[in-house]
Amino acid sequence: MRVGVIGVGHLGQHHARIYAGRPGAKLMGVTDLDPLRSRLIGERHGVAAYADVTALLKEVEAVSVAVPTSTHYAVAKACLEADVHVLVEKPIAATPEQAQELIEVARRRGRVLQVGHVERFNPILLAARPHITHPKFIECQRRSPFGERGTDVDVVLDLMIHDLDIVLSLHPGPVEEVRAAGMSVLSATNDIANARIAFSSGCVANLTASRVSSTRLRKLRVFQMDGYLSIDYHTRQGLLYRRRQESKSRPGFERKPLNGGEGDALTLELEEFLRAASTGTRPAVSGEDGAAALALAHRVLEEISAHMRRHS
To answer: Which residues constitute the domain of residue 246?
Structure first.
């Protein structure tokens, strides 16, 4: 499949690298607002560096869109209307309304729209999923040191949205209540946020995201009636705890380690995109999935604003 990459900065350069080495893909070219950057990545992989999106779209069947969040909607829409399959980095768009329009355009044009929630393809999460059946309490922690990249959006849209998408993918049911708080520390938007989300199934999710931490942390814990699961996205290690069945007088857990192996999440994500685009089938992380995560993220943001107003 003939593919291209729009935006070859921090993330897009890796899309180009992986496409260039995949047997099922033929990287046709790249484009970026910075022509020097575009030329550098193009030369690295022996492909054309296009001056604009329109010229690239004439040469490809599918593209990765890795531009700033504020331009996701406009660029992805142009690609879909050119009858090109699209993988757009997360979040799918800046607003839920834009997300819904992208879904409609993709449906109308018969194109695949996949959203780059790459954590869904983390090997440790893939190893853990078969053990998650009826979650009752979910705890997500995502912390990073401060950096300039990503601060064009709130930490909820930058970091927490990964975990919002994962929680929704566990099918806890419709959202019943959202409570949230956050604050700005080093940027103009929230740099740390916490959300408590209650679902119709009785499941409760507690999520914390920070981009002003001294260390990096990516963890998920899922508690169920028969035990709990703990995974570390960074180390790709996990532990599964099952309640011992043999003795009610001596309650306790049996522990089983989980190992995510050496697979690369971004490679798995792009392979899924190529599969969906070549077959015309729904991708693992669809436009609808991306829109659901974005809508919940905006609900969290609304609750943070309400919390600030109540306590100002």
So the answer is: 120-262+297-310
